[in-house]
Amino acid sequence: MAYENTEIKGRLANLRKKMAELSVDYYMMPTSDFHNSEYSADYFKVREYFCGFDGSNGTLVVSKDEAGMWTDGRYFIQAENQMKGTDVALFKMMNPGVPTISEYLVKNMKSGQTLGFDGRVISTSIGEDLEKKLSDKGVSFKIDKDLAEDVWTDRPELPCHDMYVLSDELCGKSFKEKLSDVRKKMEEYGTKAHLLSKLDDIMWLTNLRGNDVECNPVALSYAYITMNQFVLFVQSKEVTADVKDYCHKVGIELKDYHELTSFLEDIKFEGDVLYDKRNTNFLTYKTLLKKAADCGVKLVDKYNPTELMKAVKNETELKNIREVYVKDSAKLTEFIYWVKQNVGKVPMTEYTAAMKLDGMRAELPGFIELSFPTISAYNANAAMAHYEATEDNAAEVKAEGMLLVDSGATYMGGTTDVTRTIVVGEISDEIKKHYTATVSGMLNLAASSFMEGCTGRNVDTFARAPLWNIGLDYNHGTGHGIGYMLNVHEGPHNIRWRFAKGADEQALLPGMIVSDEPGVYVEGSHGIRIENIVEVVDRCKTESGKFFGFEHLTYVPIDLEAIDKKYMDAKSVEQLNAYHKAVYKKISPLIKDEAVLNWLKEATREI
């Protein structure tokens, strides 16, 4: 007899009953919150509730007679196991013959039918694409109703945590100064109003922080800006007395988070409205579009001005970031020493190693939270870029091979991200060759000079060249921006080489910080990634123009046990020795344990 998951089947039956009541023929549930955050809180896990699959990427589509769930290759096995007996079909994205969601809907939906979804969790680009492809078929849309509200009876609460205020001294620039800069850009674009939906942009602009998204110190919020008004939409229960006093003092008008749609429907636009389509959910976009038409004004789609302002750190932010990275580097160095001293002697798994590091970081003054869940991957597991060990599913770390640890935290004064691959036992000559090339690439990029106007695409080859020279590459970008006491991933700049027609690129500017993280991933064998964070700096000005470069923010030793000098040229050897000299100088004053200090001296010796 076939296994039946009666719980999931019961939930789907209740959902279909609700769909029938509202005349919704197909209902779509993605993996997202209202702001397309990197992490979705339990409240938003509607797709998981109705099919059982809890991976980080997936979209469920339910009709009267069928249910299908789309996910990528990382999750095929997991999805099959978790959806067993649910009657939900798995659509393996990118596999030959597997339709996309829009192709499936175009094929199956009939004229007069209705597609429903919560328009707050669908991006505008996806919503417009579905409209374009389905409207010709006579399909209508219902996007203003979250059907899970009435079906998911024990649904977790919407994330709601106290907000807090950062001082102008810590931020280096007041809210009023930042707002003045935003209004200048609004004038430049010929707009009278600006709707801001991106959480980290809102937090940066207001000098407020929250705790509504895992590992991101942000509050669920929207901001509406005119030339004489600033309205912040947040959950009323999150507004502490300090936040209320601060908002009153600086001229921030507070409204409840759930009032945005009715506010936009009631307000009269006095001129064109600036918004960023990439960061605006479909329901909000459609509300804006209708209101703009009613008022006889245009919507102006431009990148949020705050995005670039936020990416170029001011002098106060840079000073604090530099200090935080040195403290964080010293703590990670102590962790590497702990791993090397204890592997093979005490029980250690990928998970317990990660917990050890997380606990060590939490001891640092000013610690707020991890900037992302620590990635701890041993040997072959490190070859999977998205690997995540859990307490119940973690490999034992033995005294052989390597352990890759990618980790970081947010502190009062900065957000960190760093990866080291640690030798815990014997490794092959091939691994040493790969490791040495990876290190050479990281150092090569960090030491590069480039002209004003260069983007990350221009400089990415500095990091990849040592690997390309031996016929290797890695299937991810080399660098991403990092927020100031904000998200560990931020734009608009990045470092990646691949050309994409029509893709926007952002020139690298002094004051930006960016990761430098080449790697090697050999399936079934090993994974190596070495990640430093670097700051873009002025180098010199000549008759040819301005030249920029990078300065290290991360000061953690490279594992010399994996370095084979025969695979390095003289320049790379010089760069490694110079980096290790700087590592010892920067972090040795912070390390009080004599044994760790003696080890550090040996770990940063010249080769």
General description of the model:
The protein contains 19 helices and 28 strands. The chain has a 6-stranded mixed beta sheet, with helices on both faces. Strands 12-11-10-8-13-14 form a 6-stranded mixed beta sheet, with helices on both faces. The protein has a 4-stranded antiparallel beta sheet with strand order 21-28-27-24. Helix 11 packs parallel to helix 12, helix 16 packs antiparallel against helix 17 and helix 16 packs across helix 18. The protein is globular, with a radius of gyration of 26 Å. The relative contact order is 0.08.
Short description:
InterPro entries: Creatin/AminoP/Spt16_N (IPR029149), Creatinase/aminopeptidase-like (IPR036005), Creatinase_N (IPR000587), Pept_M24 (IPR000994), Pept_M24B (IPR033740), Peptidase_M24_C (IPR032416), X-Pro_aminopeptidase_P (IPR050422). This protein is α+β, with helices and mostly antiparallel strands.
CATH architecture of the largest domain: Alpha-Beta Complex
The level 1 CATH classification of the largest domain is Alpha Beta
- Please tell me the overall pLDDT: 96
Question: pLDDT under 50 segments (min length 5)?
Answer: none
- CATH-defined topology of the largest domain: Creatine Amidinohydrolase
Strand arrangement in the largest pleated sheet: 4-3-2-1-5-6
Compute the CA-based radius of gyration: 26 Å
The biggest sheet, with number of strands, parallel, antiparallel or mixed sense and barrel status, is: 6 strands, mixed
The proportion of strand residues reads 15-25%
Q: Structural class, from secondary structure content?
A: alpha+beta
- What is the count of DSSP helices, taking H or I runs of 4+ residues? 19
Number of domains: 3
Question: What is the helix content?
Answer: 25-40%
Shape: globular
CATH homolog superfamily of the largest domain: Creatinase/methionine aminopeptidase superfamily
Multimerization status:
single chain
Family: Belongs to the peptidase M24B family.
Keywords: Hydrolase, Metal-binding
Domain Creatinase N-terminal: 11-137
Domain Peptidase M24 C-terminal: 546-607
